[in-house]
Every structure is written in structure tokens, then in C-alpha cells.
Recover the amino acids of this structure.
């Protein structure tokens, strides 16, 4: 039948209307000899149009008809297809959803008969029915054929909507159970002597054990073996191992009929390194002594399915009490924190957004959340002890452990995501959790889920909606019931019992659950707008606090900030409306003492954590800081008030710098942690150094204005030294400086000197007056003659001293000299004065090098605190800051005159210049740079965590864990952090021995 040129046939138009995408190919298929009797049958077209992929269904039908052995069989199929709607819907539904099952039907054309039955027992088959369906299998090939025939019936009910996703998953688990039994039967038949020696139980784990299997999934199992009466146990275990191995091969190996699925026994004690089969007593000994928390979590789903079921029941009865005591284990909290952190690093970046299982808002989020709540509360509430995710979720809601509305939304999202996963796997019967990118595949999936108007767009919209629900509820699932338990609001829901609330807080890392619950009650109780907004925010904030090393401190600090700012409308609006602000605040409040202490002194600085006009988390330039401080000084009445204003700016900007550092180190949901540790170090060092310089400039202006008006009788400059001059100050660093002055024309030198000394004295006093703002200590001990020399010198005095008396160590110290405040011209001339000293044209002679080495060795032995572990001392220990800096500075002293790039006060810049100049190999430079950055990060971390400066790792476990989190180590990995530091420092010390102490020369 052909249409006139340029016109479409009516069949072509009908095909498009029924959902065919390639109507021309469909017309050709309908014209085939096999379908001539039904070519214009509206029932057939209507049924094809109801499938997920009408083109695929029609092609599969033609292939099935072609495969029939004779015309009579073909006629029977066509007659039954038109006459029996159940068969029509089931068969075409499968053909339109699965090319793999269409291939099976083409190879086994009589198997369509399995879809004809429509009796009540056929609607919901169980293990017994599936065992009957597999009973005739006599070898691995026939077992595969029988398995696919049973799978065909499950898929048919699934795609037609006769069963829901939970029922389909349960049927797949029952089919797996029957298959494992059949495979074990084949293995025992092949080795009856082994079967006689042992009792072998197959324990299903994972999704099979939980009665929620996918179409294509590894079937996780554990094997338990015992000797039969009178048999030797060792021989019995070997026999059981042979049977188990053969059973696994029967299911897993590829034959002419493909494979069934891999049987995975890696959840057994010791994983793939442990014996495949253990006795019951061996299992128990392992779980009692060595098992990790995740292994008990896996045992939630343990279920005997094949072999000696009595032995399997004994195994489950023996291990279950251990499962429900796991929350009492000493390491439960760090284990839980580690497991709760979503692990996506191993997912290729291009796949993260397509992952249904492991991606954010995926199936694993739901499953893990439910399992964790079962472990926490199931020890006292036996109603929660189900291995099936949706049944457990329902029980959690009924018991008040999860809000009913949250549970309902999560149930709906989980069912949708599992349905997507089923449809994706069903197509080719391949194990995958990735949403395809091909539009035709997305269209088929969308139509199979009932999305017919715009299948691709609607599928994406529904998928993202449900994934968003899961992401949003994943954390709230833990915390919202805690609020309901303490908020004392009228509600029809069951609430957490007080002891259950305490259990949950302990499980989430809170060391003092009673105090934490009191804080929650204070924050969330009442009917005020403030309480209502905080009830919305707290579930998410509590999750972020629990992700830190000190959740208790985070919650306490949040209460303090909220008590201080709760009546200001902008505060809660900031947290509610600016997504980043709430998470930034949670990170800052729970990362240690320094940032919260700075914030508590002026809580309004919380505005910096948002994205608004406060500048956000971007360090401000030195120019802007000086302008603000000098403007505040100008407005102030007197030097004391001016310096108070300057110190207030310094405190606020220290908080900003700490917040930037913490957020960059921890990362957020939207922004991963900064990978370049050196960039974080440079950012902190530059920001604190600029802030210190601006504070000194403002203080100098305030002191001069009060004592002398607009002009001091002497020009005055402040020279930054040490880390200050190198732009490498840490949070707790003093400001190392030199003071230089030069009398103005006509001013007596004595008068000028007295004025300069008065300025220094007043600056030091004002910057150290006890107040709410942290003091700024000025250290001038690097001046000529040290503490014995005058505090302030004229430029001529410095020149005379350096010409006659300068020592090697002073040239060394001057490498870091840089003007930071005061008279710019005087500062520039001071640098011109000292450049020939620090960058000598003839470099260093051998005696000067030996003197520097002796000084370094003496410093290491004299300054290292008694009792400190040298290998973990970030400043003076081997491979620490001192080692790296003295090595770099020795290169500067030797080669600075010839290599302009070395004439810098900054350690990392000088190291890079030495590498460029060929004075150090690229590998050695990278080793020193890594060690210096790490040691600096350790010192910054200690200050952030403890609120006071320190050069060694804390010994208190929670503080050590907090340092680890800052450095990128998860819960329970403090030992890994210390090992990594030792390795890095040891490598750096090797380079120092070579370059500084001249190992190559000795």
C-alpha cells in the first residue's frame, strides 16, 4: 500500500499519533508477511502505542513471529495476542521495554506462553512458584533459560503496572533465592561426597537479603559451613568451600545463554582476603573481635536463603544481638561520621550528575539514612529491625523517629528513583546506575514511567525534583524529630522519647547530649517568628555541626550568636535567604575556638558570611584597610578611641580571614575544599600581614595626631621583619619590626629621638590595652644589639652600626626587612641602606656559612620545648619551618647579588626563584615547598582550633581531630595525618641536610 507522491499514508499518520518515532520503518514491518492479517487492526496499534517504545515493541513482535517453528504456532500467537488483552499488554510491554528479553524470546519462541496465565497466584509469585519454574533445569545453560523465563513474567507484571516497584524488587529477590537453591542443588549433584560431609548455609546480604533486588545486580552472600555428624571439621569446611565456589560459578559464568548475575561474597569477614566459608563459631569470633561498624550495618539485611536453612537461622540469631549493640561501640561516632560523608571521589566527574545510586540525592542517601537510624534506635525498638528499606522507613515514621511527612516524601522519591533504575537496567539487562544521555533511551524510560506528553523533559524534571527531595530530607531525617521532641509544639505525630533523642545525639557525635538538647529546646521552642525560622534552619545546621570535629561547640556557639542577634531582622533573614551564609556559619562555629571568639565579641560580623554588601568572604586589600582605619582614626576623639576603632577593624578582618580559611579548607556543598594548600597559606599570610600593617599605620597616625598634631618633629618609618616582612604572618603572630627615624630640618636630634621613643611606647601601650579585641604585640628584638640596643635609631645610626658592627645573623635577619608603615621615603632609603648587607656582591665566605650553620644548630637544641616530639614540631623540628626558611635564606645570602629573583622577603617566591636559577632541583624545591606549606597550615590550624598559638599538634583527641578536619582528614584519620606530616618533614629534612648542612661536601 503506497501513498501518492508528496503525501503521507493514513497509516503513517496513525503511527505517529500512536508514539512511533520511525513511522516509515514501522510501515515496512507492518507490511511483512507475518503481520499481514493484523496490519490494519486498531487493537494492535493501540496496544503498541501504549508501550514504552512502540518501534521497539513492533520490531520485537516481528522477530518473535519469525522465530515461531511453523505457521500453526505463528497463528496461535497472533490469535491469542488479539483475543487476550492480558497477554497483549504483557508481551508488547516487555518487547517495548527490553531488547534483552526480546532477544530471549527470539531464541526461545515458545516462552511467550509464560505470559498467558492470569490467575491470582500468578500475580504475586513467591519462592515456591519460582522454584517450580526452575525445577526442570539440569545444568547451567538450562538454568539460565528457565531463569530468563521467570524474569520475563516479573518484567511483564512490572511494565504493565500490575505490581509496584517494591513488589517487583521483592519478586526479583525471591527469584534470586530460588536460583541460588537451584544452583546449589546442581553443585551438590555434581559432588555428592562433598554434600555428605558438610552443612552449608547461604546467607543473602545487601539488596537480595533486604528483599529489594534490582533486575541486574550482584547478589551478595555469606557462606556458613559446619561438619555433618561424625565428619572432620577441616574436611567439611573444604568440602563446603568447593560447593560454594561451584555454586557461584554456575550463576556467574558466561555460557551460550549468557550469565545470570555475579555472586559476590566480599561482605564476608576479612573480605576477599578471608576464607570463603567459615564455621558459625569462626564468624562469631571475628564479629566479636575485629568487625568494623560498616560490617554490622551490612548484617542488617542478612537473611538465610539456600542450603541448610536451620544453620542459616542459627547464624542470623547469633549475629543479630551484635548488630543492635553496635551503637554502644567506642568507635561508633567516628565511624558514623566517616560513613555519613558522601563518597563521590571515585565517581568520574562526568558521571556524578547521572548517578542514580551514589550521586547527591541518590538511592544510597536514602538507604544509608534509614540504616543508620535503625542502628541507633533498633537496639531498644524491635519494630525497626527490617532489612527492607521502605518497610524500615515506615516503621521509623510510625515510631516517631522520622517525621511522617518527611517519610512520605522520601518513600515517594525512593520509589521513583528505583523505578528509573529498574527501567534503565531492564533495557539491556546490564548492571548500571547511570541515567543515559541518549534522547531515545530517555524517551523510552519516560514513557515507561507514564510520562507521555514530553517524556524527556518530564523525566528530567521529575528525576531532579525527587533527587532534590532526597538531598533536602537526607539530613533533616536525622534532626527534625529531635526538634519535635524538644520544641513542645502541638502535633499529631509521635515524638522521639527523651532517651531516644539522647541516643541519636550521641550517635551523631555530640559528647554532651543533655546540653545539646537543652540548646535545641531554647532555640526551637515557642511560636515566635524567630523560633519558626530556627526550626527550619536547625535540621540542616545540625548536620553541618555533626560533620565537624566538635558538634557540641558548634551548637553552643550558634545559640550564643542567635541570643545576641535573634532580635535583629537581618540576621535570620540572612541565614534563611542566602544559601551560603548558613553553611559558612556552621563551618566557622564548629571548627575551633578562634573564629567563634572573634565573632562573639561583635556578632554583627556574621553578615560577612553572606553574599551581600559586607564584602563577603573576600579578603580586603591593604589599601582599602588603611583607608577605613585612617578614616576611623580621623573621626575619633583622641588616640585611645582611635586605636580602639582600629583594633575593632582588625578583629573583624581577622574573623573574615579565618572564615575564608575555614570554608576553603572544609569546603561546602556547592564549593569543594580548596585543593591548592599553598594558595590558602598565601591568602592567610597576606591578609593578616596587610591587616597588621594597616593597624600599625592607623595607630601611628592616631598617636602622632594627639601628641604633635599633623606633623611629628622627625620622619618616622616602621620596617616589617621576620614573617611580617615576608607577608607570612599567622593568626597568632607578633609583629616583628624595626623603628627608624630622621629628624626634620632644624629639629634637635635629642628632641627628635625623644619624640620617636614616645611614639613607639604609646603605640605599644595602646595596642595591648586589655579589651574585647585581641592585642597586637610589637616585637623589636631583631634591632641592632637586640634587647640591649635602643628601641629607635636614626637612619644614620643604623648606617654607622651596620658599617662597623654588623654580624652575619643581622644580615640574615635583614633578608625579610620591608617597610610597612610611616614615611615612605625614609622606608625606601632604609632598604637602600641594607641591600648591600643582605645581598653582598661577594656572597658569603666559608666562615660566615659555618657561623650560620652553628647558629641554626644551637637554636634547634636550645629553643625546642622540653618534652616536645621534635618530629612533630612544625617550627623547629626536622623538616619544619625553620629548616626550610634557613635553607632558602642561605641561598639568598649566597646568590642574591647575582640573581635578582632571590631579592624577595617571601619564602615561597625565593624558593621558586632559586629553582628557576638552577640553584635547586625542581624535585627538591617541591619537597621544601610542600613541607613549608604543611607546617604553616599546622600552625594556623592549631591557632584556629585552640584559640592560642602553638607549634605542635594538640594531644586532646577532639582538638587533634579538628586539626585533621582542617587539613582534609576525615573522622578517625588523625593517625594518618601525623604519619603524613612525619613523611613530608622527613623528606624535607633530607633536602636540608644536603643543601644547608652541605652533606654533599662532607
Amino acid at each position: 500500500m503506497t501513498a501518492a507522491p508528496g503525501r503521507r499514508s493514513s497509516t503513517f499518520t496513525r503511527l505517529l499519533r500512536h508514539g512511533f518515532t520511525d513511522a516509515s520503518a514501522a510501515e515496512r514491518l507492518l507490511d511483512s508477511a507475518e503481520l499481514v492479517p493484523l496490519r490494519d487492526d486498531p487493537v494492535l496499534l493501540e496496544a503498541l502505542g501504549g508501550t514504552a517504545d512502540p518501534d521497539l515493541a513492533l520490531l520485537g513482535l516481528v522477530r518473535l513471529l519469525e522465530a515461531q517453528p511453523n505457521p500453526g504456532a505463528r497463528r496461535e500467537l497472533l490469535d491469542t495476542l488479539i483475543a487476550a488483552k492480558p497477554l497483549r499488554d504483557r508481551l508488547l510491554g516487555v518487547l517495548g521495554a527490553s531488547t534483552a528479553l526480546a532477544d530471549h524470546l527470539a531464541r526461545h519462541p515458545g516462552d511467550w506462553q509464560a505470559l498467558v496465565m492470569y490467575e491470582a497466584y500468578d500475580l504475586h509469585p513467591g519462592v515456591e512458584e519460582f522454584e517450580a519454574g526452575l525445577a526442570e533445569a539440569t545444568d547451567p545453560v538450562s538454568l539460565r533459560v528457565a531463569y530468563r523465563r521467570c524474569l520475563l513474567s516479573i518484567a511483564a507484571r512490572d511494565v504493565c503496572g500490575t505490581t509496584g516497584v517494591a513488589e517487583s524488587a521483592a519478586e526479583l529477590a525471591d527469584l534470586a533465592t530460588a536460583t541460588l537453591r537451584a544452583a546449589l542443588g546442581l553443585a551438590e549433584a555434581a559432588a555428592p561426597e562433598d554434600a555428605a560431609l558438610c552443612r552449608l548455609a547461604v546467607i543473602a546480604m545487601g539488596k537480595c537479603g533486604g528483599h529489594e533486588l534490582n533486575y541486574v545486580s550482584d547478589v551478595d552472600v555469606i557462606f556458613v559451613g559446619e561438619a555433618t555428624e561424625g565428619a572432620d571439621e577441616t574436611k567439611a569446611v573444604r568440602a563446603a568451600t568447593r560447593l560454594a565456589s561451584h555454586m557461584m560459578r554456575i550463576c556467574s559464568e558466561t555460557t551460550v545463554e549468557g550469565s545470570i548475575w555475579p555472586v559476590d561474597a566480599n561482605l564476608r569477614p576479612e573480605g576477599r582476603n578471608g576464607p570463603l566459608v567459615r564455621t558459625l563459631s569462626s564468624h562469631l569470633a571475628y564479629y566479636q573481635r575485629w568487625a568494623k561498624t560498616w560490617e554490622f550495618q551490612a548484617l542488617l539485611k542478612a537473611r538465610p536463603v539456600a542450603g541448610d536453612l536451620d544453620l542459616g537461622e542459627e547464624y542470623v540469631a547469633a549475629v543479630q544481638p551484635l548488630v543492635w549493640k553496635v551503637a554502644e561501640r567506642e568507635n561508633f561516632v567516628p565511624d558514623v561520621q566517616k560513613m555519613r560523608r558522601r563518597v563521590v571521589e571515585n565517581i568520574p566527574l562526568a558521571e556524578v550528575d547521572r548517578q542514580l545510586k551514589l550521586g547527591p540525592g541518590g538511592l544510597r542517601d536514602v538507604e544509608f539514612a534509614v540504616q543508620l537510624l535503625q542502628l541507633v534506635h533498633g537496639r531498644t525498638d524491635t519494630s525497626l529491625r527490617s532489612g527492607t528499606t521502605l518497610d524500615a522507613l515506615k516503621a521509623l515514621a510510625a515510631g516517631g523517629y522520622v517525621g511522617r511527612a518527611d517519610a512520605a516524601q522520601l518513600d515517594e522519591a525512593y520509589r521513583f528513583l528505583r523505578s528509573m533504575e529498574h527501567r534503565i537496567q531492564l533495557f539491556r539487562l546490564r548492571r548500571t546506575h547511570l541515567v543515559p544521555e541518549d534522547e531515545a533511551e530517555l524517551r523510552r524510560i519516560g514513557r515507561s514511567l507514564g510520562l507521555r506528553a514530553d517524556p524527556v523533559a518530564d523525566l528530567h524534571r521529575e528525576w531532579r525534583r525527587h533527587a532534590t527531595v532526597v538531598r533536602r530530607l537526607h539530613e533533616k531525617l536525622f534532626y527534625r524529630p529531635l526538634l519535635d521532641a524538644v520544641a513542645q509544639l502541638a502535633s499529631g505525630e509521635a515524638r522521639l522519647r527523651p532517651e531516644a533523642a539522647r541516643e541519636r545525639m550521641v550517635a551523631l557525635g555530640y559528647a554532651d547530649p543533655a546540653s545539646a538538647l537543652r540548646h535545641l529546646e531554647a532555640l526551637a521552642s515557642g511560636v515566635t517568628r524567630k523560633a519558626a525560622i530556627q526550626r527550619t534552619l536547625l535540621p540542616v545546621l545540625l548536620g553541618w555541626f555533626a560533620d565537624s570535629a566538635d558538634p557540641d561547640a558548634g551548637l553552643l556557639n550558634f545559640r550564643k550568636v542567635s541570643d545576641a542577634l535573634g532580635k535583629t531582622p537581618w540576621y535570620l533573614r540572612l541565614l534563611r535567604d542566602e544559601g551560603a551564609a548558613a553553611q559558612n556559619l556552621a563551618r566557622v562555629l564548629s571548627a575551633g575556638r578562634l573564629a567563634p571568639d572573634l565573632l562573639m565579641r561583635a556578632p554583627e560580623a556574621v553578615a560577612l558570611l553572606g553574599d551581600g554588601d559586607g564584602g563577603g568572604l573576600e579578603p580586603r586589600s591593604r589599601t582599602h584597610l588603611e583607608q577605613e582605619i585612617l578614616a576611623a582614626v580621623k573621626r575619633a576623639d583622641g588616640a585611645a578611641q582611635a586605636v580602639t576603632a582600629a583594633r575593632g577593624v582588625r578583629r573583624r578582618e581577622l574573623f573574615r580571614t579565618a572564615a575564608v580559611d575555614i570554608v576553603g579548607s572544609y569546603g561546602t556543598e556547592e564549593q569543594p575544599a580548596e585543593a591548592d594548600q599553598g594558595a590558602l597559606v598565601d591568602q592567610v599570610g597576606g591578609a593578616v600581614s596587610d591587616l597588621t600593617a594597616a593597624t600599625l599605620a592607623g595607630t601611628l597616625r592616631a598617636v602622632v595626631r594627639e601628641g604633635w598634631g599633623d606633623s611629628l618633629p622627625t620622619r618616622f618609618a616602621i620596617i616589617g621583619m621576620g614573617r611580617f616582612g615576608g607577608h607570612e604572618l599567622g593568626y597568632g603572630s607578633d609583629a616583628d619590626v624595626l623603628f627608624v627615624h630622621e629628624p626634620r630640618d632644624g629639629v634637635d636630634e635629642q628632641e627628635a629621638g625623644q619624640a620617636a621613643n614616645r611614639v613607639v611606647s604609646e603605640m605599644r601601650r595602646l595596642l595591648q590595652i586589655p579589651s574585647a579585641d585581641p592585642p597586637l604585640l610589637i616585637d623589636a628584638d631583631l634591632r641592632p644589639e637586640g634587647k640591649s640596643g635602643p628601641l629607635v635609631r636614626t637612619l644614620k645610626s643604623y648606617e654607622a652600626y651596620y658599617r662597623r658592627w654588623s654580624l652575619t645573623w643581622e644580615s640574615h635577619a635583614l633578608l625579610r626587612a620591608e617597610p610597612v608603615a610611616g614615611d615612605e621615603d625614609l622606608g625606601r632609603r632604609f632598604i637602600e641602606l641594607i641591600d648591600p648587607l643582605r645581598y653582598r656582591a661577594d656572597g658569603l665566605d666559608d666562615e660566615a656559612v659555618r657561623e650560620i650553620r652553628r647558629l641554626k644548630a644551637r637554636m634547634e637544641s636550645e629553643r625546642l620545648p622540653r618534652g616536645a616530639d621534635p618530629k612533630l614540631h612544625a617550627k623547629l623540628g626536622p623538616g619544619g619551618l625553620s629548616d626550610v626558611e634557613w635553607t632558602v635564606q642561605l641561598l639568598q645570602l649566597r646568590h642574591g647579588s647575582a640573581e635578582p629573583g632571590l631579592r624577595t622577603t617571601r619564602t615561597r617566591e625565593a624558593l621558586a626563584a632559586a629553582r628557576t636559577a638552577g640553584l635547586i632541583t625542581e624535585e627538591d624545591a617541591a619537597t621544601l615547598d610542600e613541607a613549608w606549606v604543611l607546617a604553616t597550615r599546622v600552625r594556623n590550624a592549631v591557632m584556629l582550633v585552640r584559640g592560642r598559638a602553638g607549634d605542635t599538634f594538640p594531644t586532646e583527641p577532639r582538638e587533634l581531630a579538628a586539626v585533621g578536619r582542617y587539613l582534609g582528614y576525615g573522622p578517625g584519620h588523625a593517625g594518618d595525618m601525623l604519619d603524613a606530616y612525619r613523611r613530608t618533614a622527613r623528606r624535607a629534612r633530607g633536602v636540608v641536610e644536603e643543601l644547608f648542612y652541605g652533606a654533599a661536601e662532607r
